[in-house]
Amino acid sequence: MRDRPEAVMMFAAGFGTRMKHLTANQPKPLIQVAGKPLIDHALDLTHAIQPKHLVANLHYKAEMLEDHLHPLNVETLTELPDILETGGGLRNALPLLGDGPVFTMNTDAIWRGANPLKLLLDAWDGSTMDALLIAVPPDQAVGYSGSGDFTIDIDGRLTRGPGLIYGGIQIIKTDLLATIPETAFSLNRIWDLMLERQRLFGLTYDGHWCDVGHPQGVALAENMLSRADV
Q1: How far apart are CA 16 and CA 23, in angstroms?
Q2: For 170-217, what is each residue's pLDDT tens digit?
Q3: Alpha carbons 189 and 85: distance in angstroms, whole number
Q4: How many Å is the maximal CA-CA distance in the chain?
Q5: In which region does residue 189 sit, left (phi positive, over 0), alpha (psi from -120 to 50) or beta (all else)?
Q6: Which of 19, 15, 29 is nearest to 85 (CA)?
Q7: Less Cβ around it within 10 Å: N or C end of the chain?
């Protein structure tokens, strides 16, 4: 099994209900931010690592995303009749992603700073890590009001608790997916197994990040991208 990640899984199946009117007639990944769809911002990040396989899972208004993604050489899987969540969706896509660790990325965040995929790739060590998550300090998260998801020790190992925010991009090994009996499940189930083994790691991001999780997030992200002081 290869150790270097050569595939990217893009999560694009959600309903985007928190976006309200913006997703009434389109899926969330097609919402425009700074003149282009959210998912195109995510695709721009993948160019730096040149993955062999680029896959997106679809569900809500899947045809619109298929029409957008296929000319961009993104393979798609439509989850029917129900959404499989992040863990189930990743497991369902393994025939397209291949063996070995993969990148997974949410498609509803905007980044300003170093490319998080490249940072993860440079820091990845499969001999000690089962997953490496990008972690954002709260004061660098635009529009975020929560308490964070993880704390990180001096060696980069993660534990659950208030502190750093999971930025929605990681490198993860996929072998533990087979241990989950449910069809639909969250990747949190896999992270918990990795935490028990002390093989869940994080990398602190030094740029700025905006989760476009509500309608106001569009303006916040556009302002973040346009400002010279962030």
Answers
A1: 6
A2: 999 999 999 999 999 999 999 999 999 999 999 999 999 999 988 999
A3: 11
A4: 49
A5: alpha
A6: 15
A7: N
